[in-house]
Amino acid sequence: MGPIMDRSRLDAQLAEVGRDVAFPQTPPIVDEVMRRLAEPPPLQTRRRRPLVALAVALVVVSMFTVLPGPRRAIADLLGIGGVAITIAPELPQTATAGEFSGNEVTLQAAQAAVEFALVVPDGIGEPDVVYLDVSVPGGLVTLAYQPGQNSFRSEERRVGKGCRSRWSPEH
Predict the structure, then answer these.
(1) What is the CA radius of gyration of the chain?
(2) How far, rounded to the nearest angstrom, does the alpha carbon of residue 28 sit from its chain's CA centroid?
(3) Please, which of 2, 40, 77, 133 could form a disulfide with 101 given CB 3.0 to 4.6 Å?
(4) Interior/surface letters 11-26, b for 16+ CB within 10 angstroms, e for the rest
(5) Looking at the 3D structure of the chain, how many domains does it have?
(6) What sign does the dihedral 146-152-158-163 (CA atoms) show?
(7) Which tens digits make up the pLDDT trace of 145-170?
(8) Are 76 and 149 in a shared domain?
(9) What is the rounded CA–CA span in Å between residue 139 and residue 157?
(10) Is residue 3 part of a domain?
(11) Is residue 93 part of a domain?
């Protein structure tokens, strides 16, 4: 191995060699770069951007639907925090048309058995019969009224994402 050269001597020798080597002149690239930047992107790139944006949106929406924490936060933000989405191995049995599920109880007993507030429609008084089914997760309460002068019907209208319910004797 040869002698170790100090840095100043190495710098001087490299500068001397650099003067003897013929390097080509740097081409004028600024004009070419500016011209290419002004051109619209190729068609393939323009088509890819919306697809990438759609893929990212689908991933984000999937994460919010699958993960319980974000799903709960969005439900609370939209004011539907009372909705519980659960995955069950099988669906619970429900009543068929004209039948009510559960046992006959008082309105007070039904309210005491469930965690949600029971709302009785204004103007028609107490229900004739109240049914409580505790086999349904969270409980199922049915308020039944006999047909008559004070009978009201529930109407629910869905418009876009909104939902409006009302009670009226006219329909």
Answers:
(1) 37
(2) 52
(3) 133
(4) eeeeeeeeeeeeeeee
(5) 2
(6) negative
(7) 777 655 555 544 444 444 444 454 44
(8) no
(9) 25
(10) yes
(11) no
Contact present, 141 and 131 (Cβ < 8 Å): yes
127 Cβ neighbours under 8 A, 6+ residues apart: 107, 120, 143, 144, 145
Alpha-carbon distances, residue 114 vs 31, 107, 140, 144, 165 (angstroms):
76, 11, 8, 17, 22
Question: What are 125's two structure tokens?
Answer: 């008084």
The model's pTM = 0.35
- pLDDT tens-digit map of 103-153: 899 999 999 998 888 888 877 778 888 999 888 888 888 888 777 655 555
**In which domain, by residue range, is 111 found?**
103-168
* Confidence band, pLDDT 50/70/90 cuts, at residue 1: low
Q: Are residues 68 and 10 in the same domain?
A: yes
In angstroms, the CA 148 to CA 47 distance is 64
Half-sphere exposure (CA, 13 Å, Cβ side) for 77?
7
| 144 closest CA partner among 102, 94, 113 | 102
